[in-house]
Amino acid sequence: MICFKCHKQFAIPKLVQHLRLKHGVIEDGKEVLTCGQGACARTFHTFRGFRGHLQTHLKTDFPDNKEQSNENDKVSDFPEESLESLQEYNINNDEIVEDQDVYEDDILSVDTLNRQCVNVISKFSANSANSGKVVNDVVETTSAIVGDVVKSASAAVTAAFLKHKLPIESEAYKEIQTHFAMLEKPFENLNSEYKRTKYCESIGLVEPQEIKLGIRYDSRLNKRTKQYEQIAIEDTFVYVPILDSLKQLLSNKDILHFATHDHKSTDGVMRDYCDGSQFEKTPLFHEDENALQIHCFYDDFETVNPIGSKTKIHKIGALYFILKNLPPKYNSNLSNINLIALWYAEDAKKYGFNAILKHIVKDINILSTVGIALPNGIVKKGTITQISADNLGANSLLGFVESFSAHYYCRLCVTSKEEAQNKFKEVSMDMRTRQTYEQHLEEAEAQTTQSHVFGVKQKTVLNDCIYFHVLANFSLDIMHDLLEGIVQYELKLVLEYFIYERQPPLLSQDELNQRVASHCLNRTDNKNKPSFIKLRSARNDVGQKAMQAWCLIRNLPFIIAQDIEEGNVYWELLLRLLDCMDIIFAPQLTAGLIAQLSILTEEHHTHFQKTFPDRRLLPKHHFMVHYPTCLREVGPLIHVWCMRYEAKHHYFGRVAESVRNYKNICKSLAKKHQTALTFHLQSNHPLEYLEVGPGSSLLLSDLDENIGQIVQEQIQVEDLSTELFDANWVKVHGTHYQLSLLVCHDVSELPLFGQIEHIIVHNSTVFFVLVQLDTVYYNSHYHAYAVEFSFPRCHVVKNQKELVDYKPLDLMTTLSKTDSRKYVAPRHVLFK
């Protein structure tokens, strides 16, 4: 079998040992083991699956080979005919390992042993469910077992020497015993928390720092007097120095590449922050287009049972950051979301955010003026670009009023809450300017009777950043505004009308929930299937999480629309909302689409008022009016939404649950995170991430003649005997593609879709052989495209990177007895 890393040949047990010892491969859930035998591109996360797959290759590719995994595993033991087969297997140019090399590979060096021990500890440390005590127990137990085994082996060698009257004074005996002594205590340099921390520091650990906020008094038991006494306790927060964090990140060669090579669009399409107008207006990016772009996220999260009695005490505030220099597909990985600071939420209320933020602002200004040195010697500057948060968190952090029933609640304009019920065009609103902001701030600080002026509450040190100001923070959060707000509010109003107000009712609530439960969701939505829909409650939602609400509103047309007459004003409200969402949730946009969103938003809000004249628009409806400006300024809002950041909270929640010690929970969480990050960066996992499922190897000539010809043209090979891997499924950056799903491969007047018939993997590149579908028309009542398979069937081959949209789709059908058409409902607008 061939090593996929160095292309040397080994028997299966020897290959696994070689990967562990020579390449430091560990089963950490992130390491990808690639088959590499011929054209086979199958990937695994465990050695067990990897080994079993190689055994299958051994049986099918070398049927005459009698080797068993528990027998002598030198390559020289392969029968001659198997070696000839190996040469025919396209590996005749790979290096054959000689016997001496095989034995040398078995000998552990000190460095290899240390690396193996570090790999074991990093695997356990990275798991959020493992506390420091668990790691200590693993190290202690493993050390004891290894020590006993080595002592036993050493004693056996000594006994054998004496039994056979071999001189124990010989150099051979001394060399063996010296090696045993080295193996006896493998974790000697890593067997305590202190030693592991020192090791992590040697490989770049950024140690969290505790910074004093103030003093509080608490009563503690005096162990000597057995009396409770009042003592002074320091209130602190934990800061991970952002300059050191950036240096650590940029030591990774993949991240360094993107810090020195921009990904700006050249075709006028807005795909990320670097394509927005704010990037163009920032002087730092005129000086260096690749200056570091730091996007921050703030939110609070609970570390204990959210319905328990200790919720407020242990509620934690967190500030994270990502590097927007990386393309969006990489920043969705939780490993690339980095920690800046953790603090007790109650301390932020007591001392104010400025007491925390001033330390961060100081470092950001050093970054903006002096910069940091990269590993390649280049000095790189940077700045905060945007800060994402939910509406309450953003207003709190940025110094605005924290109540959305206030007269002026918007951070971007001074529209009153009454005016917001009628103003649906941004041009008719008074936008905040730095001059009016400073005036309102001055008045607010001079006030003694009220806490804010025109929504401005207090000064924030964030405005001391050289290239950042709160009025330029356009990262409104579409997750909270739409999926947890407007979508559920309007779903509830419309469904209540159809179920409780319309005569006769369209359906009952029980029937609705039965249809939702039994509806055959497309395979790309299975993980987000809606829960039981709650209508008769005082809340403005239907009891769904954000992704469930998105799934529900996109699938609802295939559940009830067949029973609704076209043009129904209540149904039209949801369709107009979906039209807006098609643009808002798009990962790429044009100036024309953004202008269209302004019109669609105005039409939607006007239609809402006409349909529900006794209902008020939410503040989140008002924020929608600002979306076009936000999109122009900072690019697609889906790249700055809170969804992935909130997933980071779950990591810290699991860590807190495993630690179960709340004496200094912020420091415990930060230290665990930084240690795991250090081990992750040390492992050098590539940013490019491909998983390949089961499948079969085939020759290009084995494909149908018509398919083979277009595959040959796409992968650009001339030899029809070229081996390919035909997979059942692949995962590219976490996106799962499988046979019979649909992808959008082109756009003419309407989007063109294709059904995946083959998934071809060649040289780590994924190609889809698609059966083309004809897009017949757009059905606005179902908010979907009607499609049908072309006849005769036509095929097209597309590189995964060439797809119009990376998200796979599925065929949908309605519950109508008269409409048998197939439909496709994209998540957002599609264009090329």
From TrEMBL:
InterPro entries according to UniProt: Znf_C2H2_type
Domain C2H2-type: 35-57
Region (Disordered): 60-79
Ranges that cross the membrane: none
Comp. bias (Basic and acidic residues): 60-77
Entry protein name: C2H2-type domain-containing protein
Organism: Strongylocentrotus purpuratus
